[in-house]
Amino acid sequence: MSILDTIHAPHDVKVLNRDQLKELAKEIRQTLINVTATNGGHLASNLGIVELTIALHRVFDSPRDRFVFDVSHQTYVHKLLTGRNDAKFRQIRMEGGYSGFSDPTESEHDTFIAGHAGTALSVALGFAYARDRIGDHKNSHIVAILGDASLTCGMTLEALNNLTRTTKKLIVVVNDNKFSIDENVGAISIYLNKILISGFYKTVTNSIKKILGRGKFGKAIVRGVRKLKCAIKSIILPTSYFEYYGLRYFGPIDGHDTAKLEEILEFCKLSKIPTLVHVKTIKGNGYADAIHFPETFHRVEPERIGATTLQPNEVFYGEILGKELTKLAQKDRTIVGVVAAMARGTGLSYLRDHFWDQYVDVGIAEEHAVTFSAALAKCGMRPVCAIYSTFLQRAFDQVLHDVCLQNLPVVFCIDRAGIALHDGMTHHGIFDLSYLRLIPNAVILQPKNIQEFVNALHSAFKWHRPVFLRYPKSCNRNTDLDVLNFSQYLQLGKAEKIIEGRKVCFLALGNMVDLAHKICKELENFGIQAGIINMIFVKPLDEEMLREIAQDYEFVVTLEDNVLMGGFGSAVLEFYNDNGIKINVLRHGWPDNFIKHGTSLDVLRSKYGLSAIDIANKVLSTLNAYTP
After folding, report:
1. What would the pLDDT profile of 8-47 be if each residue is shown by its tens digit?
2. How far apart are CA 12 and CA 9, in angstroms?
3. Options 394, 473, 539, 605, the catalytic residue
4. What's the CA dihedral at 133, 135, 139, 142 to 10 degrees?
5. Which of 389, 377, 383, 364 is nearest to 444 (CA)?
């Protein structure tokens, strides 16, 4: 039996000796590699935090002591050490398996749901405040585990500003691996590196002690010199940033030395003021490819360990964006790509590699990315802010107040719009249509394929308004990429008629056009010839087309990869209602719920009644109900 198989709860880790701990770390890494090879997931970040997680569970007593993981995509090791080394872990991120993020419904050892960066310190402060005043465990510890990239988040800095005014007892661990997803950028990353290269501090002070400690009065001199320690430290070691916030700083510490980590963490438990432990780790430690290519192996796809290509019939929208935007940037030097730590995921790494001076990575700071883009637009530049749907919602105020209020021509490329499958409820991009629709001046559209996407991107620069171009992660390769080029400008707010039909007409948005074709094939078996309209635009709607449809059809069926509440279908329903037009509208989209992770899009659609057969049956039932 392996050592990992003997771990059923955190206390089982406490009884292991040093040799057993090394073997446990090795077994955990192999388990992570095996599981992510099958299910995909966040590999490099979890490989890098193995020893730190082991040390945390040896020093503290979860769940009495609370761990708050920032983002929480690096909690796979934590799950293995808290009774979840079972069949459901082997199905992690798949239907019936554990979530790839922290989830309190899975275990009492998971304290908070988190899929976005920058939340951990605020949560930890809330936990500490409640513990200090009404908690049953006043002597318990709260530990916030942050990645170094999280220090660039506004929320983290806001929490730091309130830390010592909130509690006197908190432990913050900064896991510094120089990477978030892409390589970290900005002043705080540089600051942490200064701390690392100031390692000669110990060498200098030790040398002083050896020299002055000799002789009759050596010890007395050393005691006197100790009074100058703070002055020497402030000159040689730049830790004052954290000390200004009232934290006692320890580090940098080797994050793969379990014994050293335990020693420091035990000391932190005794501290009368909040402490910060700066831990240096290697992202991807234990797997050579993940070390050499941390960006690629931050998150791997199922069955893709060691692979870098997609399936032959699949293409990333981000790849198309990166290449097409680079062509545009070459012709127009005012075009600037803006990204929040997601260069590779959004495809802007291609622009970075070709025109680095027309590319800006602001780090994990979505709010800043949006307002920064607004300022660029105000100065006559043409910013393209590429951002995942789930992260754009963090900058809602900036989108409304800083961009749309002034009608500034920022092009938002909203990646991962729709279901995010394995990443689950924290990452599904199924809300953006609803919260963007209510904002004046916004142009919102979703192309049906990559050719229409390229045309939409070029067209966005012609509209001179805030444009929100949404699309899923990938799609079928229906066009030869070698010959993919801009072909024509889209007409603002105009839909495309694809199939003429009778009685029933499908109004589909983006990738739902393919689903509309499948539904129509099902209906053909019952002698029903339905029409299909590729609506393209959610705002402005093609009102002329909607009026024409109301004259030619009895039933309208809307299809969207968004929640029903306030989405595309609601926009159609509102138009008909506001204009007194009588027509039956059947809306299809995701329910008013947070959708969990799933094995495939087909599985999730079937689960919520959104498969082609399900919708065809609903349409048939409705038609039969209205048949005299």
Report:
1. 999 999 999 999 999 999 999 999 999 988 888 888 889 9
2. 6
3. 394
4. -90
5. 389
Given phi > 0 = left and psi -120 to 50 = alpha, else beta, which region is 58?
alpha
Side-chain-side CA neighbours of residue 84 (13 Å): 25
Domain architecture of the chain: domains with CATH: 4-198+238-292 (3.40.50.970), 314-483 (3.40.50.970), 497-626 (3.40.50.920)
pLDDT at 204: 47
Side-chain-facing half-sphere of 602: CA atoms under 13 Å: 4
The answer to whether the CB of 104 falls within 8 A of the CB of 180 is no
Q: What is the mean pLDDT of residues 144-152?
A: 84
Provide the 10 A C-beta neighbour count for residue 320: 23
Given 366, 367, 452, 522, the catalytic residue: 366
Q: How far is CA 625 from CA 416, 557, 590, 618, in A?
A: 38, 16, 24, 11
Q: Which residues contact 107 (CB under 8 A, 6 or more apart)?
A: 79, 82, 83, 84
State the pLDDT at residue 180.
Answer: 45
Give CA separation, 117 vs 122, 182, 547, in Å: 11, 14, 45
Q: Is 366 a catalytic residue?
A: yes
Confirm whether 243 is a catalytic residue.
no
CB atoms within 10 A of CB 279: 28
Which is more confident, 434 or 315? 434
Q: Can you list the alpha helix ranges (DSSP code H) found in 332-428?
A: 343-346, 349-354, 366-378, 389-392, 396-398
Averaged pLDDT for residues 175-193 = 57
H-helix or E-strand containing 553? strand 553-563
At position 281, the amino acid (one-letter code) is: T
Computed on alpha carbons and rounded to an integer, the radius of gyration of the chain in Å comes to 28
What pTM was estimated for this model as a whole?
0.84
Per-residue pLDDT of 61-84, as tens digits, reads: 999 999 999 988 899 999 999 999
CA–CA distance, 544 with 547 (Å, rounded to integer)? 5
Rounded-to-integer distance, Cα 371 and Cα 316, Å = 27
Q: Which residues contact 123 (CB under 8 A, 6 or more apart)?
A: 68, 111, 112, 114, 144
Contacts of 286 (CB under 8 A, 6+ apart): 25, 26, 29, 47, 50
Q: How many residues does the chain have?
A: 628
Give 247-303 pLDDT, tens digit per residue.
999 988 999 999 999 999 999 999 999 999 999 998 777 666 656 566 555 556 655
Coil, helix or strand at residue 125: helix
Is 64 an annotated catalytic residue? no
Task: Kindly name the residue from 79, 84, 169, 283 that is annotated as catalytic.
Answer: 283
